[in-house]
Amino acid sequence: MDATIKYVRKIPVWKVILGFAALGVGVLGLVLMDFVPGIVSLLFGLIMLKTEGSEINLESQTFRKTTSVVGFSFGKWQTLQNPEYISVFNTTEDITIRALTAETTNSLPIIVLNIFYGQNKKITVYKTKNVKDAFDVAAHISDALLIDLLDATEKGNFKWVDKDLYRDKGEIVYID
Q1: Where are the domains of the chain?
Q2: Whole-prediction pTM
């Protein structure tokens, strides 16, 4: 059994298609044309295929935030010190779009999973837009690390989730 839990943010299909097309054009550009356009296309393809995630090694109690490109993950391992609980909460993610003379920032809703340890220190381990996906991942991590699961999706209304019932029935039931 693999002792490493891996979560990687999914890349939209259109980005995968565009990324592999750019890689193909880049390789052809390097072989048939000039060096600079080939490198630019390769870099564009790699940027389109880049995604973020996290890995938790249960045996060594370590974690790392990862950047993955075409299945290869990079990141520095850090010690996971006495995890207490995992929290699922709603927040917003700011995305800045820049043009030649203009800039705008859009806030998009997102669900974030944090593992809390020590004196309210936290590690962000996963981000998603889907509530069910967030609770599935949080339940998996809480079972693997033997920690509690906190539903903090409503501002100011934090509730502990019964992990056993969620795992068995897929329903969120709160513990009093």
Answers
A1: 10-48, 81-169
A2: 0.73
